[in-house]
Design goal:
- The complex is a heterodimer of chains A (666) and B (249).
- Chain A has 666 residues and is of the alpha+beta class.
- Among the domains of chain A are: 267-429, Flavocytochrome C3, Chain A, domain 1 (Alpha-Beta Complex); 502-626, Fumarate reductase/succinate dehydrogenase flavoprotein-like, C-terminal domain (Methane Monooxygenase Hydroxylase, Chain G, domain 1, Up-down Bundle).
- Chain A has helices at 16-23, 29-32, 44-56, 94-104, 111-130, 163-180, 246-253, 300-307, 324-328, 338-350, 367-381, 388-414, 469-489, 503-520, 528-542, 549-569, 581-605; strands at 36-40, 59-63, 81-82, 156-157, 184-187, 190-198, 201-209, 215-219, 222-225, 258-259, 264-270, 293-297, 321-322, 362-365, 423-432, 435-436, 449-451, 633-638, 647-652.
- In chain B, helix 3 (149-159) packs antiparallel against helix 5 (177-188), helix 5 crosses helix 8 and helix 6 (197-210) packs across helix 8 (233-248).
- Classes of the chains: A alpha+beta (666), B alpha+beta (249).
- The interface between A and B is large, with 80 and 80 residues.
Chain lengths: 666, 249
Amino acid sequence: MSILDSKIPEGPLADKWTKHKNDINLVNPANKRLIDVIIVGTGLAGGSSAATLAELGYNVKAFCFQDSPRRAHSIAAQGGINAAKNYQGDGDSTYRLFYDTVKGGDYRSREANVHRLAEVSTNIIDQCVAQGVPFAREYGGLLDNRSFGGVLVSRTFYAKGQTGQQLLLGAYAAMNRQIGRGKIKMYTRHEMLDVVIVDGKARGIIARNLVTGEIERHSAHAVVLGTGGYGNAFYLSTYAMGSNVTAAWKAHKRGAFFANPCYTQIHPTCIPVSGDHQSKLTLMSESLRNDGRIWVPKHKKDVDAIRNGSLKPTDLKEEDRDYYLERRYPAFGNLVPRDVASRAAKERCDAGYGVNQTGEAVYLDFASAIERYGKEQAYVKGLNVDDTKLVTDLGKKVVENKYGNLFQMYEKIVDQNPYETPMMIYPAVHYTMGGLWVDYNLMTTVPGLYAIGEANFSDHGANRLGASALMQGLADGYFVLPYTIGDYLAHDIRTGTIPTDTKEFDEAEENVRAGINKLINNQGTKSVDHFHKRLGKIMWNKCGMARNEKDLKSAISEIAQLREEFYKDVFVPGTENEYNEELAKAGRVADFLELGELFAKDALEREESAGGHFRDEYQTEGGEALRRPEFQYVSAWEYKGKPSEAVHHKEELKYENIEVKERSYK
Amino acid sequence: MMNLTLKIWRQKNASDKGQIVDYPISGISPDMSFLEMLDVLNQELIEKGEQPVAFDHDCREGICGTCSLYINGRAHGPQTKITACQLHMRSFKDGDTIYIEPWRAEAFPVVKDLIVDRTSFDRIQQAGGFISVNTSGNTQDANAIPIEKENADKAFDAATCIGCGACVASCKNSSAMLFVSAKVSQFALLPQGQVEATDRVLNMVKQMDEEGFGNCTNTGACEVECPKGISLENIARMNREYLSASLKG
């Protein structure tokens, strides 16, 4: 019997959440004023939960490392947010959203959690519209939708290519309302460096003021981590420069199990790497696959001609192009899920069909969409549909209206006009499905310590479908945690303020100071970035889009070795009592160097292919991911002093409402 | 590959006087972003045991609004409609001298080197930049309020402000009118925002004045330098809102 208790409520799937809400303890409004909650991170999950908990009456302290809560990296999400509204009348329902998400996650997520997510998805849209989030609308004044990968309906709500921005600013506004009322105390430019455990419960954090370098103690009755994912372990990713695993990793070291660290999303449509100086990668939204067609040349000679500049992609004849997604997956075409699209791009590029100098790029082409939209507009306006130039101009306008900011972003980076020539794209690290293990109440294995949004592992299985990260972040923050945390806090109404002058806080602060001193006093010769880049190369080459036993074993030893070298030879300039970005980075990279090893260990243990985790040894004859029934479990790792000694726990996954079958998008 | 001379504002902390320091830099590729060029400089400084240049940055894709560099006398540099992180070195040529300074405004005190404190922007939003609806999810169905597409699109355009502060930095009066008017306009254009319209504009403008931002004299530099192209129309709309709120209030 596993020691992991997922606390999934009894009863039929569709009634679990309602029943659970009716069964759990509540805290009366007067008592909520006696309870403090710390929230770390102010993205969609952290920001929305801070606002809601404050509104319910709890005293909230919120922390972010950015200079304003509005800058959390949720802001960069582009394409949209799913909800089972069925406004398009195309057969969508709560069950379908649930089904698509479990299937999309390659049957490695929890049924009950995903169903709850699908249930509350519609509330999110109502809530956001009431808050003044300006979603895209049709001419009739109603909300517009588009499609995302792995799905056969249009259920994605959007605000051009800036949906994350608009949703985050909605949550930020809700927070601002509570900050103005004194219900949220906001700590910007603060980084959490440890969790404080008192009598087995999370009772506070140690944070560093990034401007003054001061180490601060903050207590509360519960601690919530909405600190995002750990994709920056790969150095190059679509994450923000500051995104890190530190808060989650410190929680792990204090007893929170880390689940499925190897489940990483490598997003198929990002701008390819241009050189060694590169500091980050830029996503081109999946929404572009609604209208863009992905291809490479059919023949090697054309690949060579394109690479040496003697052939323009626009001059290559239709019959000489290989629209490989449409060829391999006729039912879903360009809208296959992300893991499938990424692997297919890698397969073509590995076979030598990549279209840029590095051989790692495929085309995303809008020419047929421009023509199709242009003709439609010409009909609507009663103009000549055979006038090619007119049709193209009209079509470009439609495309600009839908994706204008993305096209502009592309042009600024690559210096090519995507209205005239196809975009070049290649997969890049984008999201982590793994994270802190949580039960149905979103509590980690440490009582009183919660993880929400990307920081937890629960809803996306081995692969996340597009437009569902925003959905999960807001579902957790607005509609799930505010209920479930009450069940725990109901026992704390008589506890009183948690003192910070105790031995537990002393010990945690000492621990933080020791870590900082070690880094700052280390008279090494190499910069933090030097080590981060090397870690990134190991991760990408050996734990990336395809993994195998030999590479994973060598990654484990290389990362351990690199970590040793880091502590011997890293150089951090400046002092600890000032704004010192290098010091902050050093702490984060130190944690990535531990997480990276656990990541590889987890990938090695999982002897199957599922979603974003592809093991060369386990594939079908057609090169698709081969799941194995004996691995139908969540891996949850318990920290035991070193990543190599982490203890493996399993949570078996049961599918009672969905038949587990081969995931086919053909 | 380019060789450049950088003239960078260095200031240890808020109380330090600060000065421009020269840094020659070589081997810069035109495909590098401006911030990647600064990364190269910082790596060189660290290797020499010197303090790297502190600058704000995070998403590096033009949406978080963190980066805030005044490059050759212009907010976010020589190109329009982009942030400093989206600026690439192909906009410069070999041998150029580049001045890099922080935002300059009384309401944005320098934290260190090129980093400024923009929490005044947050306080303005806290004074009224929201709709007072509880996050219960028990509101009306989202499609129960049809909104004319034109207004919805205009509200969206106003809402794309990233709060970087380029408008303030570019204004000879350090006025925050474009920033404040963007939020006021977003809600003024939507039926959901009407209920609290009077208090919102009065409270936000009051906070803006208290923070020490200057007045608007309709020069329009803010609109030119805004990386998101927030329109001056928003300022006109806020002035109308303010006038009618004042008459009511």
